[in-house]
Write a structure and sequence with these properties.
heterodimer; A: 491 residues; mainly alpha; 3-stranded antiparallel β-sheet; disordered C terminus; B: 100 residues; Helix Hairpins
Chain lengths: 491, 100
């Protein structure tokens, strides 16, 4: 390790300094003024994004991609997700402005916590060692617990934070126990060393228990059945911009690390863990979609829908092939775009100071705001995976990957459940276009319009012209895949 | 020298006690103590393995876990205090505004 290795960490260093600066700015005179907080945060995120590009270009010339005792890698996989997280957090920052102004809480700590959570995600996705992965994961989780309870005068928000905290802490402990058993069997915490140790190993109980506990901890983070019970309550209770954050950036981060660990660390025992994960995936799709049908609160409905989407994304991890890993990357991206758009539209609707949380808040939206009603339709179709939108591409890759690797029955469940999901997505469309009513008024601020428009443009563009994105994810997933395929004799 | 298995059995027992505590107790603080017990059982596993392998990795991980557990305690207790302001109780059964 030399001084020049710090270039690997440059984005995280800048972001940490920026997030700390956000805490200190109000102390030197900027008191009370919420307006400038947003711009400070966006500037910090912009500089961080630029430094991701700079450091990734600098790393291309180096011989190794991992540094700091092989704990931290800046490969194309990490760069893809870092830019995705930065985009999602920037969108959440833009969405939060109205909420912060109305609730009269200090915006500085809020943005600082978001930046620290982002820092944890970026650190985690670069982690190729279980210590760095765990530390990143906890930085993200601890910031999320606080953010979920940020609306502290609101009882629901506090309750959400408490449930999220208790279940999150338990899942971290379970994850750690899994890591400790894997360490005990393999004698190392580095994913590459674990991979090497496992290549000469036969199935043994301690290892299986370790992998299952690690998987259970990660399934909690992506909210897969049977570790999903926290999701609807936390999504409902948390402030709506934070729900947007939890269901997009935080979830994408969990998918990324799930893929990293299972593709580059544990793929030798695919036969053993894939059947268990397949069950989890099938249960998530079935329970998530069926439970979503019964919901009238939109936040809860989207929570159950996000449980189902965790089930779809798991297909890509279970199948462990080139289609699968590309599917995970693609799906994460299109899911984040569609969900951010939906949350932006929800935040535009106001009723009694609250965002439009109920399905009937959407009644007759077409009359009052035809463009945003159209945008909502596109986002919902994308979540449902209907062709002209980006969601189709993601689902196509995931389902094809499952079929290729012999999980045809799982692909059939996934297709059937996608059809079921259209039922409750279309319920919102029906409310917007066919029902009368003006329960909620539309008050779209400039930033909300911007977020929804960007997500709409991206969802449509990637649905019509997916080629550049597919090339990009093929490149980004290459390194992760090389290792998985080498070991299986180039299957 | 005490065989590694003994430590592993002890830590498995401690972890199970922690899980039972989380599942059966209602008081927020007691649940949090049970979680700490689970985490410390994991620490014991790491230390036992690190001794067996004569490695530092496991020991270093324990330091990270302890530091993070301290941060987690700070966040968790703050959330419990906030809960107490609303409900005059930190009984998890009282957190029942949202269901199904």
């Amino acid at each position: 390790m030399t001084w020049s290795d710090t270039v690997f960490l440059l984005p995280e260093i800048i972001l940490t300094l920026g997030a700390s600066a956000l805490l200190f700015v109000p102390l030197i005179g900027e008191r009370g003024a919420g307006r400038s907080a947003k711009w400070w945060t966006l500037v910090i995120l912009g500089i961080t994004a630029a430094s991701v590009i700079v450091s990734s270009n600098a790393v291309v010339g180096m011989t190794q991609t991992a540094t700091f005792a092989a704990m931290f890698a800046l490969d194309s996989f990490a760069i893809f997700f870092k830019l995705l997280f930065l985009f999602a957090i920037a969108m959440v920052v833009l969405m939060s402005e109205d909420f912060l102004r109305e609730s009269r809480y200090s915006p500085w700590e809020y943005y600082s916590l978001l930046a620290f959570a982002l820092c944890g995600m970026m650190f985690m996705v670069s982690g190729v060692h279980l210590i760095s992965i765990y530390v990143g994961l906890e930085l993200m989780s601890l910031s999320s617990y606080i953010l979920a309870g940020y609306y502290k005068n609101e009882q629901k928000s506090t309750e959400a934070a408490m449930k999220y905290f208790i279940l999150g802490a338990v899942s971290s402990a379970i994850l750690l126990y899994g890591i400790s058993l894997i360490y005990g069997v393999c004698g190392s915490l580095n994913l590459a060393d674990i991979d090497r140790a496992m290549s000469t190993m036969i199935t043994n109980d301690a290892l299986m228990v370790g992998i299952m506990l690690l998987g259970a901890g990660l399934c909690f983070k992506i909210a897969a059945v049977p570790f999903h019970v926290w999701t609807p309550d936390v999504y409902e209770g948390a402030p709506t911009p934070i729900t947007a954050f939890l269901s997009t950036a935080s979830k994408a981060a969990a998918f990324s690390i799930f893929a990293r660990i299972f593709y580059s660390g544990l793929h030798h025992f695919q036969l053993d863990w894939s059947s268990v994960l397949a069950t989890v995936s099938a249960l998530s799709m079935i329970v998530g979609n069926l439970a979503a049908i019964t919901q009238n609160n939109l936040k809860r409905m989207l929570a159950y829908s996000s449980i189902a989407h965790a089930g779809y994304a798991l297909l890509g991890i279970i199948s462990l092939n080139a289609m699968g890993i590309r599917g995970v990357l693609l799906y994460t991206l299109v899911y984040v775009l569609a969900n951010l758009g939906i949350w932006a539209v929800i935040l535009m609707l106001r009723r009694h100071e609250y965002a439009g949380e109920q399905v009937d808040d959407f009644d007759g939206l077409y009359r009052r705001a035809p463009f945003w009603a159209f945008a909502m339709v596109v986002f919902l179709l994308s979540l449902g995976g209907i062709p002209p939108t980006a969601g189709f591409i993601g689902k196509y890759f995931l389902f094809a990957a499952a079929v290729q690797s012999g999980f045809g029955w799982l692909a059939i469940i996934a297709v059937l459940m996608s059809a079921v999901s259209m039922f409750y997505y279309l319920r919102i469309v029906v409310a917007m276009y066919l029902k009368e009513g003006a329960a909620a008024e539309v008050s779209a601020s400039g930033s909300l319009r911007f977020v929804a428009a960007v997500c709409l443009a991206a969802t449509l563009f990637l649905g019509v012209l997916p080629r550049p994105l597919i090339d990009q994810v093929t490149y980004s997933s290459r390194r992760l895949l090389v290792r998985a395929l080498q070991a299986d004799g180039g299957r | 020298m005490i065989p590694t298995q003994w430590f592993l059995i002890l830590s498995a027992i401690l972890f199970s006690i922690g899980v039972c505590g989380v599942l059966t107790r209602k008081n927020g603080i007691t649940i949090f103590m049970s979680i700490e017990l689970m985490v410390n059982a994991v620490n014991l596993t790491f230390i036992a393995y690190a001794r067996q392998f004569d490695q530092l990795h496991g020991l270093i991980f324990v330091f990270f876990i302890m530091a993070i557990a301290a941060a987690e305690a700070a966040v968790g207790l703050a959330i419990f205090i906030s809960m107490y302001h609303h409900k005059d109780s930190i009984d998890v059964d009282d957190a029942n505004l949202m269901h199904w």
